[in-house]
Amino acid sequence: MMEDFSIEALRRVVGERGVITDEADLAPFCTDWRGMFKGRARCAVLPRCTAEVAAVVRLCAAAGVPIVPHGGNTGLSGGATPDASGEQVILSLSRMSAIRSLDVIGETMEVEAGCILQVAQEAAADAGLLLPITLAAEGSARIGGILSTNAGGTNVLRYGMARGRVLGLEVVTADGTIVSGLRQLRKDNAGYDWKQLFIGTEGTLGIVTAAVLQLAPKSRHRVTALLAVPSADDALAVLRLARQAIGETLNAFELMAGPALELVARHVGLTTPLAPAPWYVLLEASSSLPSLRDAVEEMLADVLERGAASDGVIAESEKQERELWHLRESITEAEARAGRSIKHDVSVPIALIPAFLRVADEAVMKAFPQARINAFGHAGDGNIHYNVIIPPDADSQVLNRLVHDLVVAHGGSISAEHGIGQYRVDELHRCRSAPELELARRIKLALDPAGLMNPGKVLPQTIVTR
Ligand code: 2HG
Ligand code: ZN
């Protein structure tokens, strides 16, 4: 039998200040960073420990109240935004932000879900180690959200997606059970690797409360370079040469279309140190071997001689490195200021990036002559943010379908790193095969039969109710 839902009962669990009901205080939890998704909620609950998360989940489960987990709110797919019903409870992990332990010998860190990525990165750096998850939103994104969305970022090329960093996980399941698998083991084949069910499923199967992350050695030398390249094909030629010359040291290989950096100049006021070009590549390499810089210089000389790049600059100081990265990381903000943009966080096999860009540009400009294409992304791992700025009255669904059909035709994915959230639910169901969707449905029903965990995200809610 359903019990009555009571704010007072929640307060008894998380303390007076742990429940937010005031409309103004609740507002930031009910919209995303871009203000694109908006909803309403009964309240936001901010537990202080895993036991409190479990108690909150049990109270909500008993009353049949849906839960929307909330991290740094930077996901861009609406995964942390409640629906319009006002029935949902937001569960913010922000008061669970401890770094529980750090093991320098094993190079691991146990961290709570609410810890901001940058804080975790700094703690690793203080111990002479590297937490190799690097995102433009690292100053706000929280570990729980990063793992729940299996975030990517700029160094996936070398270190893989967030999933690959997770050695151990602690979760609260939909019935309020704490499942702790906070092991520090690099090798653990004892049974099902259940933690993968909670990584990348955006809180639809349970709540990530803590994790053991695999750190990496910190390189002593780093080289960052910006190149101007005539075409996307040339960018891939640079990638190939870089992989051959300095492959294992390459952290990032970012591609930016000329218009993307024009947006940054116009809306953020930052300019490139190179002459205007159709495309730019920002690459970063790091190694503890002192010969790194010589190797990068040699590789760049080769690239210029072959004509794969028309110009290039290597950062001479940390300040210059930050300036080059600042250009890249300002594209999202510049785009947000430029008007209504429709995001496509897509990936295709790396070798097909130029072909995809060619056909997509042609098709988009034919269907939407007033569109401005803002293409940039992590070319080294095949992920392009193929964002399109369109007039307010343009049909975004037509645009989404057009782009995603081309992505699928190129063997790609309609969400490379930002997840499905509420933004891409329909498109996921249009683009994925029936057996894959059925498998997802069976997993959802097994772990969250009442459909109370982040309903309507990733999977349509009808999956549970039908
Ligand atoms: C990035 O690569 C982020 O900067 C944001 O993933 C992507 O704004 C976007 O579409
Ligand atoms: Zn990205």
From TrEMBL:
Residues 37-218 form the FAD-binding PCMH-type domain. It comes from Aromatoleum toluolicum. Belongs to the FAD-binding oxidoreductase/transferase type 4 family. It holds the Pfam family FAD_binding_4. Keywords: FAD, Flavoprotein. This is FAD-binding protein.
